[in-house]
Automatic annotation (TrEMBL):
Bilayer topology term: Multi-pass membrane protein
Name this protein carries in UniProt: diguanylate cyclase
Localization per Swiss-Prot or TrEMBL: Cell membrane
Chain ranges passing through the membrane: 12-30, 36-53, 60-78, 84-107, 119-145, 157-175, 195-211, 241-260, 272-291
Gene3D superfamilies to which the protein is assigned, alphabetical: 3.30.70.270, PAS domain
Enzyme Commission code(s) on record: 2.7.7.65
Keyword tRNA processing: no
Stored SMART domains: GGDEF (SM00267), PAS (SM00091)
GO molecular function per UniProt: diguanylate cyclase activity
PAC domain residues: 378-430
GO biological process: cell adhesion involved in single-species biofilm formation; negative regulation of bacterial-type flagellum-dependent cell motility; regulation of DNA-templated transcription
Record keywords: Cell membrane, Membrane, Transmembrane, Transmembrane helix
Enzyme class name: transferase
Amino acid sequence: MQTSLQHPSSRLAPLALGCAYFLMAALALASSRFEGGLAFIWGANALLMAYLLTSRAGAWPCALIVCGVASALSTALWGMGTLAAVPMAVINLLEAVIVALICRRFAPGGKFAGSMQRLFVFILALCGPANLIAGLAAATVASALTTVPFASSLLQWYTGHVLGGLTCTPILMMLMRGELRRWFGQTPPRGKWEALGLLLLFALATAFVFYAARYPLLFALLLPMVAIVFRLGNLGAAASVMILAMIGGMATMTGHGPLYMIPGTLGERMQFFQLFLAFSFLLSMPIAAELNSRRRLFQMLQESEARYRAIAENSGDVVLNISVGGVIEYASPAAAEQIGCAPELLIGQDAANLVDPADRDQVIATLDRALDQPGEVQTVEFRPFISAQGSEWCEMVARAVVDERGLPTGVVSTIRDMSRHKARQRALQQVAALDSLTGADTRRAFLEKLEEEMLRVRHGARACLLLIDIDHFKAVNDCYGHGAGDRVLAGFVERLRPGLRGGDSIGRLGGEEFAILLSGTDVVRASMICERLREMVTAHPVQIDSGEVIPVTFSAGLVGLGSQSDAQAVLEAADKALYNAKHSGRNCLRLAA
């Protein structure tokens, strides 16, 4: 929410801002021009900077105009006169604009009370370019129109504007952002009474230090101020500084308090008081920022914990928290159903005990990778050692949990039953590996089996490859149609299967070309098997849908595995033998050279 001071739709906002600026400037000039030059205390620019940092850029022109007029009037009436009115107004506006532009560029958002980075940028902008540039210009004007030297004028400007800006700008920004209104709306009565009591005690302690103490006890106010910050946060810091400014400032200006013990002029004492005030506030601001950060972090952790518990306790997957050493620290209720063990009994057990010994090394390596690469998710499939539902396969998804330094403190993992998925995967693989028309292996599946068989042959096994081509198949398609041709292909494989042994494989390489992998046999035995297959096919012609019977024969080329270097060489040798069979009258077998 925004106050009327900064609300872009409020017509009174520029007028209210100008009046407030004029009152603050006039009060500072009337009460703190101790040496006849520049004011030693200046908080008016803090008001303008707070407005610029909390409003849209479109509202800046009106704000700068009214504050420029207010600055010129206050300087003409209570400052260095009409000659200095316009130059000093321009210089005051220049300081505020420089700070606002730098903060908007390097620290967008402008909420200094909750961010150390934004507060640091604000301090650098105010103490650096803004007041170095504006201070040099103001000292030039003051030294030309008054008897105060240039160096003294520069020191008066710099200390007054820097200390006033550091102290007042963050406080005014909090008020403009409506934080006080939100605090009143969100804080229960007990909290409000606690805040009032703490601030009253701090006011009494400040009055004692500045009016009654016989010794300089400024340091004694820091402890209650820090306590207020811990209890009330940013607004507590702002309220305590305002109390300190009112009581301590009045005491110092009227000749009371520990600062009056310092030898020097009243202006020097007020500068020292502003320095103490600024440092007190800057001491409390980092504490408030850190507390805000921790409160937000704690709230985020609570929300994250609530989400995590809701998901973990109602999910069908098993959720485990595993320590760096691989020990289970938490197990979700789903463990009872999926693993067959009560969650509380799993706590303290080694997570590897849930995995089949054959897969443990792989799972442990996955958990180690999750710890070594905290930002990445690791996945592994494994067979469980025990399972309540007889799960054959599980999938683990693991990710490291890190601390505030980014170092892993453990692993959060989910375990899901993958048995059905694996079964579907195997079924799909089987479907993809089979020719839909004949039921024989597809070319790809058969070639994979050929590669595997050749590997076994290299280790001493025996095997042969039989390449088959149906004789005159094109004539069947031309005479009877492709439907009859498909029936012949399917019937051809049906007639071959009874003659194959359990370890043999038949594949369709394309069209009417087939291949048979005969495991554990030599060329002589393979030739006998081929002749038996040829007899079985010839003895049982294929009947098509029209009722006609089509006799089927085939030509074959046979090669023994072992001498060839790869599957392609084996196929080429068998194909040459098949070519010889076709040119030898068909319906016969030829051996590879």
